[in-house]
Amino acid sequence: MNTTKPTARPRAAAAVEGARAARKRLVLTGVLARQLDEIAPGTTRVRIVPVRTDRDGEQRVAMWVALDDALGLPLKADRLAHRAALGLLRRAFPAADWTRPHAYDTATGDLALDVPTLPEELNQ
Asked: Which backbone phi and psi does 17 adopt, to 5 degrees?
């Protein structure tokens, strides 16, 4: 009787699959960078922070969005630009937990938690 044995995947197939995934990520990073640059020229970093507000006695969560340039300075952009940047990143990263603060870097394409930390000198 013939029995089949599980075989390891050939490394070449895994390498091709990894290259495809890397190419897709690179394309996505480029598209997001171009679109953010169209929304607010010079954008290199987007910070998104959920903020609790009290409107008419009702607690709501609003999103604070900051568009920064290469020097880390805020860009002058209108409300629609901030809203468009938030919508773009929410559609690009639907699995992200938007109840926590995030920062998106257009150079690397990374969406990371933006948790405030103390400088090393103050940790003593």
From this structure: -65, -40
